[in-house]
Amino acid sequence: MSGVHATFGLAPAMRAGGVLADGGYEVHRDFVDFIVDGRPLLLQLSDLDAVSPLASDVPPAIFAAQVRSLLLETDAPLPGGRYVIYGCPECEDLACGAVTAVIERAGDGGDDYVWRDFAWQTEEQADLELNGYHGIGPFLFHGPEYRAALGALIDGAAAPAAPRRRVLLIGARVGLLAKLAAALRTIGIGADIIDHATGASAEELRSYGAVAYGSTVGERERAAIRRAFDRAGADVAHVAGLAPIVPLLVAQIEHALDRSPVAQRRLTRLVAADGEAGIEVSSPCRVRVTAYRLDRLSRAHAQEVFDGVLEPGRHRIALDAKAVKGQSFVVARTSGSVLVEAMAR
Fold it and tell me: Which of 5, 11, 307, 339 sits between 20 and 30 A of 221, alpha carbons compared?
């Protein structure tokens, strides 16, 4: 292989959960992604709904074991010196499919590390000819850089912060908030319902990642809540609920919890106006677009208006006029992130 080294790093990433238009749901996962030559490796592969084995929501012992495995301190879990690089976000079953690669030391006992022969694998043995990721790798990483990045996860110097997957729900519509809290908990996000946050302790406030306000919460009350979080030193996202539609509110909250840099996302832009959705993606990926609306009796309606693979760049998607009639909203979703916009008129 070439002697040109690739840079190696790590960065927090998210698999966006959600309540889907058909009633199904996808689980929220926080994980640490591999940054190769300044770009998430996951984005360099074909569009995948997958997470790395360095998941932030697994027990510390399992997390540390995964790190040591990538450092080659333990035997490879699969034949041929192969390691799981990305796996199913819902379970750990190889039958669901996983991206694997051979990880080894360069040369005879060299100091550097090599990742090579990437493949999509569903059985114990990988078929490189049929399922290999041709054109991806091999990657040669400087040993000190590689060990420092992964080793810091074990010694705590750069360990991922515990994901703040708790959301504070504030509003007067208790029934709606209860349904929203149940939906969030189903996809792996904790949710609490209270009528105010000004009396909570600083430690309690710092445990939240987002605050979602119902339409009945006035600006003075919101300002007081923001001050309470500021005094506690809590960096939270504040979400103004667009409409009393649970899947829409879940999508808003998932977007608020995504703190990854825009440059590390596949879905980077959404505009909804004049019966169209303007979408920008950074790499080839499957995009699902769902329209939500309220009719004159305040009943919620949902319609999936697009589901397909988009190439990098900007795209304009025409929306069914009935799907965006009246007060309506558009949700665009990839495996890694979600964007929400009200339809402009």
Answer: 339
**Per-residue pLDDT tens digits for 114-124:** 999 999 999 98
Render pLDDT for 57-113 as a digit per residue (tens, 0 to 9).
777 888 889 999 999 999 999 999 999 999 998 887 888 899 999 999 987 667 899
Q: Is 64 helix (H, G, I), strand (E, B) or coil?
A: helix
Those residues whose C-beta lies under 8 Å from the C-beta of residue 228, and which sit 6 or more positions away, are 197, 198, 200, 205
Domain boundaries, the chain: 8-155, 164-259, 260-345
Q: How many residues would you count in the chain?
A: 345
**What number does CATH give the domain 164-259?**
3.40.50.10140
β-pair type (82-86, 166-170): unpaired
Widest distance between CA atoms in the chain: 73
C-alpha 6/C-alpha 114 separation (Å) is 10
Highest CATH level, class, for 260-345:
mainly beta
Q: What is the rounded distance in angstroms from the CA atom of residue 111 to the CA atom of residue 77?
A: 22
State the Cα–Cα distance between residues 116 and 134, nearest whole angstrom. 10
- Please name which of 270, 319, 333, 264 lies closest in space to residue 291, comparing C-alpha atoms: 319
Model confidence pLDDT, tens digit, residues 270-306:
999 989 999 999 989 999 999 999 998 889 999 999 9
